[in-house]
Write a structure and sequence with these properties.
- By secondary structure, the chain is of the alpha+beta class.
- It is built from 14 helices and 23 strands.
- The protein has helices at residues 11-21, 38-41, 55-62, 76-79, 82-88, 98-105, 107-117, 134-140, 168-180, 246-267, 299-306, 311-319, 393-405, 420-433, and strands spanning 2-7, 27-33, 46-49, 69-72, 92-94, 125-128, 145-149, 158-160, 185-189, 194-203, 207-209, 214-215, 218-220, 224-227, 232-235, 272-282, 285-292, 334-342, 364-366, 369-372, 375-378, 384-390, 411-412.
- The strands form six sheets. Strands 12, 15, 18, 19, 22 and 23 form a six-stranded antiparallel sheet that branches. The protein has a five-stranded parallel sheet with strand order 3-2-1-4-5, sandwiched between helices. It has a four-stranded antiparallel sheet with strand order 6-9-7-8, with helices on one face.
- α1 (11-21) packs parallel to α11 and α7 crosses α10.
- The protein is globular and about 60 Å long.
- It starts with a strand and ends with a helix.
- The structure holds adenosine monophosphate and glycine.
Length: 436
């Protein structure tokens, strides 16, 4: 039996754990995370309640275990240098070292990597470590801007003019707040278009691309409200999206490939893991919104539901840098994933209430919950995700929606994710952006 370590305990890690245990190799699964996710625990040989960011603590846990490979779910342990530390003690990792993970952990670094390998994919932008020059740059962008806190903010550190920031004074106040909290920020040109995520398995030499997914970052129906970690996602059976051309798809793929290579040139370390390109199709072609150094959440639920190849074979090929020798395939089906989240999420989430669900329900992934004496209690972040899978996206959406509705508690979800109405709105939006 092979010892496999999974780090993290959200719905994304449930999806990963199921794929690890659903393959042909006989695995002894260990999980380390701050809280115990009951769905992962049932798949585990042993679960350790320990912060995924506590590198020293994790090293002392693993030294008594026989672990061949570790799979890192979230981004914070990458930033903390967990992969560097594990690889030093001989544990190979699916997830990049700290210097390479900067493609996610520093937005300024990500923009500079793109400047070197795909400059046309960058929006106009400027980095700030003080508020000096903020007002003139906002004016330079003619009031169409985005302010991004340059730290790991779980998707919640980005404020957009016209949506979250309604005047230069409000923008300046947000910039000042970031500086007063000891941070730095970027101001970017506000891009107009449709977003999509392209994740690629990467071994440092080659990339194998996954189906393209569209996430819904805004909290509420109709794409309004604050930015969240992602409220729901969908993918189409052809692994593209209706508003993307083949050229757009190949441009995104080439960008991920170029970024992986540039990271090696720049840092001397290979990117071994999942490289996540967050793109926007604009009138001027594809632009990069952000890069992540891990599976997206909820995107992981879409693509892993479709993955036909044994997941551990992919992990082995990533760490042994032999991805080019492995044939990786995904089913040609549509998927819709919807998150149910506590009322008030993301700014003032309810928590501590019981979550009711049918534990035999297929395609249900528990996220930010805790088992307290047999009761599943919500802890404030995204509570649970349900996935619908079918040839037709309509059916997939109905399955995901029925799943989301069946989960009880002080919760809400976006009923519009994956519906015909919203997908058509996106197609029309893209046409109007391009001036058709
Ligand atoms: P990020 O954390 O960089 O992914 O940003 C969160 C969300 O903010 C993205 O998914 C976009 O919806 C939005 N966003 C980020 N950067 C830009 C930009 N330059 N123009 C327009 N929207 C953006
Ligand atoms: N769904 C967006 C992310 O995982 O960052």
């Amino acid at each position: 039996m092979r010892g496999v370590l999974l780090v993290g305990s959200g719905a994304r890690e449930v999806a990963i754990a199921r794929k690890i245990m659903g393959g042909s190799s006989s695995v002894r699964l260990y999980c380390i995370s701050s809280v115990t996710n009951p769905q992962i625990e049932t798949l585990c040989h042993k679960y350790f309640e320990q912060s995924p960011n506590n590198v020293g603590g994790i090293l002392s846990v693993v030294k008594n275990l026989s672990i061949a490979i570790a799979i890192i779910g979230p981004e914070n342990p990458l930033e903390a240098g967990l992969v560097d530390a594990l690889e030093e003690v001989g544990i190979l990792c699916v997830g990049p070292r700290k210097s390479v993970a900067m493609i996610e952990t520093s937005k300024a670094f990500a923009r500079s990597v793109l400047d070197e390998c795909a400059p046309e994919k960058n929006p106009k932008r400027k980095e700030f470590t003080s508020v000096v020059g903020v007002k003139s740059f906002l004016q330079n962008l003619r009031g169409e801007y985005v302010i991004k806190n340059d730290g790991l903010m779980g998707g919640k550190g980005v404020k957009i003019s016209g949506e979250h920031l309604h005047s230069e004074d409000e923008a300046f106040a947000y910039a000042k707040e970031i500086i007063n909290n000891g941070g730095s920020f970027l101001i970017e040109e506000k891009l107009l278009g449709e977003e999509f995520s392209l994740m690629s398995f990467c071994d440092g030499n080659d990339c194998v691309h996954m189906p393209i997914v569209q996430d819904h970052k805004r909290a509420f129906v109709g794409d309004v409200g604050p930015n969240t970690g992602g409220m729901g996602t969908y993918s189409f059976e052809n692994h593209s999206l209706p508003f993307l051309s083949d050229l757009d798809v190949s441009s995104a793929k080439k960008t991920n490939e170029a970024v992986a290579l540039q990271l090696y040139k720049k840092t001397g370390e290979k990117f071994r893991g999942v490289l996540y390109g967050g793109f926007m199709l604009t009138k001027k072609g594809i632009k990069v919104i952000e890069y992540n150094a891990r599976f997206g959440d909820p995107e992981a639920m879409n693509v892993l539901s479709l993955l036909e190849t044994d997941f551990m074979d992919i992990c082995d090929a990533i760490v042994s840098e032999t991805l080019s020798k492995l044939k990786i395939s995904f089913a040609n089906l549509s998927t819709v994933c919807k998150y149910v989240v506590p009322k008030g999420y993301p700014t003032h989430p309810a928590m501590g209430f019981e979550v009711g669900f049918d534990s035999s329900q297929e395609n249900l992934y528990l996220g930010a919950v805790q088992d307290v004496g047999g009761k599943i209690i919500a802890t404030g972040s995204r509570t649970a995700a349900t996935v619908g899978i079918d040839k037709s996206i309509r059916v997939a959406e109905k399955l995901a929606e029925a799943g989301a509705r069946s989960i009880k508690g002080n919760l809400f979800h976006r009923e519009d994710v994956g519906t015909d109405a919203l997908i058509n709105k996106r197609i029309e939006h893209m046409k109007s952006v391009c001036g058709d």
